[in-house]
Amino acid sequence: MELILARQDETQISVTCDGQSSHTFDIRPLRLPAGREHKRLMADPVGYGRELYAALFPTGSPARQALEEAPERIVLIALDEHVDALPW
């Protein structure tokens, strides 16, 4: 399964799954304040992981459907440095 994440504008990220447009998500809730990244992750790593999961695999999206088919691997390609900087 291949997920390509591309910035549409300052806040919206488009997700393409296996060559098919899947959905968009707002990157703002996922951003970590510069210099304090580890504090948010250490305070609630499971909660942050849930936010990442919800952004990548929302219910009803082609990405979620592909995930439910239990792919052998997931390849995540971020076409933007700000998206790539998130702790996926």
In words, what does this structure look like?
By secondary structure, this protein is of the alpha+beta class. The chain is built from four helices and four strands, in the order βββαααβα. A four-stranded mixed sheet has the order 3-2-1-4. β2 and β3 (about 20-25) form a beta hairpin. The two termini are about 15 Å apart. About 10% of the residues are buried. The mean pLDDT is about 90.
* Number of E-state strands: 4
Decide which structural class fits the backbone: alpha+beta
Number of helices: 4
Described by strand count, sense and barrel closure, the largest sheet is:
4 strands, mixed
Overall shape: it is globular
Which strand order does the major sheet show? 3-2-1-4
SSE string: EEEHHHEH
Q: Beta-sheet strand percentage? A: 25-35%
Q: What is the distance, rounded to the nearest whole angstrom, between the alpha carbons of the first and last residues?
A: 16 Å
The value of Rg in angstroms is 13 Å
Q: Mean pLDDT across all residues, rounded?
A: 92
Q: Spans of 5+ residues with little confidence (pLDDT < 50)?
A: none
Share of residues in helices: 25-40%
Explain the layout of strands and helices.
Layout: E1 2-7, E2 12-17, E3 20-26, H1 37-43, H2 45-56, H3 62-68, E4 75-78, H4 81-84
Parallel strand pairs: 1-4
Antiparallel strand pairs: 1-2, 2-3
Short characterization:
The protein has 88 residues and is an alpha+beta fold. It has helices at 37-43, 45-56, 62-68, 81-84; strands at 2-7, 12-17, 20-26, 75-78.
